[in-house]
User: Fold this.
Amino acid sequence: MPDPPAAAADGNRAGRPYPGGVASDTTGLTVLGATVRAPIEHVEVFPAPAHVVEVRLTSAELTSMCPVTAQPDLSTIVVTYVPDEWCVETKSLKLYLWGFRDRAVFAEALAAEIAGEIMATAHPHRVRVDLTQQPRGGIVVSATAELTA
Assistant:
């Protein structure tokens, strides 16, 4: 992803007007509007609109595998971040999360990996990933990973 354009005094990147106050620059987005039939390895980003102080993305459809038994683990994930120049494009997040479906990974490592991906790609001021794994054997696993720039 290229370096973000400089923000104007009003917070607008590259001086482009945002119709209705919403960024519309889709440069660099490859999965939005495309038919994609496989998971992707990284999330995609778009310029953050001015004055957005926090973004929260929630999915109840995160699936991975237990690294010991290879049984499926079903999780709910909440990604909360404070954007700097970039926001995470949600279709790319969905396709990125799909990539964990056949991966054997503990819930704690999964939360940390997703937080690392958001930090490395979107470069937010802060990211927090809360992952809650559905109970198996009567135990609910909740893991939180947080990174700060």
Remarks:
- The chain has one domain: 19-148.
- The first strand starts at residue 45 and ends at 47.
